[in-house]
Structures are given as structure tokens and as C-alpha cells.
Amino acid sequence: MRDMVLRGAMGALGILVCLFAVGALAANPARAATGSANSGSADSGSANLAGAATGSAGSGSGVIGPIVLPVPSPRGLAALAWAATQTGKPYRWGGSGPEAFDCSGLVQWAFRHAGVRLPRTTWQQAGVGISVPVASLAPGDVVVVNRDGSHVGIYAGFGQMFNAYARGFPIGLVPLRHFHIYAIRRF
Q: At what angle are helices 74-84 and 2-27 packed, to 10 degrees?
């Protein structure tokens, strides 16, 4: 158990480091590219970074087109940071904190601390906020998973979801690739 809590704490520390990096990128996307930067619409949820890279000999023009990066929601990033403070706590069905959480209780609690009121259940959470396509998934987005939309977490970046998974699993990160994405919401 001690090792799982330590791994969870290290994962939370990694999330916080990523949040600072993502926050810096969102604040100034031009620093992420070696070329010029063109900001996308604030409503689009992405920033268009135009830059060029040299390809290998014989690979064509050697120029790579624009790179589109999702721009995370500041409230979503704050919610992710709040959720990370609960790393290692136990899962409890129906739990809404602060001692134990279920999946939707953790998401609701974290977003409430970030200034966003969410409904209590996973299915209710799947129906609020701005719908986001998978290609625009950004840290801080609420990810509803499983074919029936029965589980929810907060995307942490790098293919990881922060969540209260199930009894016997402490609150922390799980690879998103293990799940079918049902809905993505941004707040």
C-alpha cells in the first residue's frame, strides 16, 4: 500500500509539473514553436503553431505543416491540480470526499474547488459543459469512459486519466488507452 501511495504521489507531482508547462504554453504558444505562431480562435480550443522542420534527405520538401495543439481550460487545469491533492485516498462507491471518493464524486469535488458546479453522477456530468472531439483532448478535460458512460475522470495529459477507479485502487492515474471514450467535456 505504501508503494502505491508513493507512486500516486509521484504521479501527482508529475501532473503538477505538466500543469506548469501546459500553462506556460497556453499563455504564450509562440514559445513552443521555432517559427512564427498564429493563435487559433479562443472558441476553437486549439492554438495553431506554424513552424518548419527539416526532413531527411529524399523525403520530400522537408517542411512540416502547421501543428494544432489543444489549449487547456484554466478551470480544468485548476480542477486537475485539486484532484491531484487527493492522490492515494481510497475509492468508496457514493463517496464525495474528503476521506474517500467515487469517480464522479472526485470530479465534482475537484471542479467545485476550481469554481465550477457540476452535477453529481457520471451520466449527468457527461451532458454538461462544452463537447470536445478526441483530437482536441487537453489536460483538465472531463473524460467519460466505457461504452455505457459509466466512469469519469479528468484527463491529465500524456495519455493518462486522473480518477477514483474502483475499490482496492487508490485515487490516481490510469492509462486512458484502457478505456473506450464515451464523451469529453470542457469547462
A: 160
Which regions of the chain are under pLDDT 70? 1-63, 65, 67-69
CA separation for the pair 68, 46 (Å, rounded): 6
Q: Residues of 50-62 as b/e, b for ≥16 C-beta within 10 angstroms? A: ebeeeeeeeeeee
> Residue written as cell 500543469?
19
Which grid coordinates are listed for 149? 458512460
What's residue 70's pLDDT? Answer: 81
pLDDT per position as a tens digit, 60-113: 556 676 766 688 999 999 999 999 999 999 999 999 999 999 999 999 999 999
CATH class of 74-186: alpha beta
CA pair distance 56, 144, nearest whole angstrom: 41
Cis check for the bond before 74: say yes or no (omega within 30 of 0): no
Measured between alpha carbons, how far is 187 from 179 in angstroms, rounded to an integer?
22
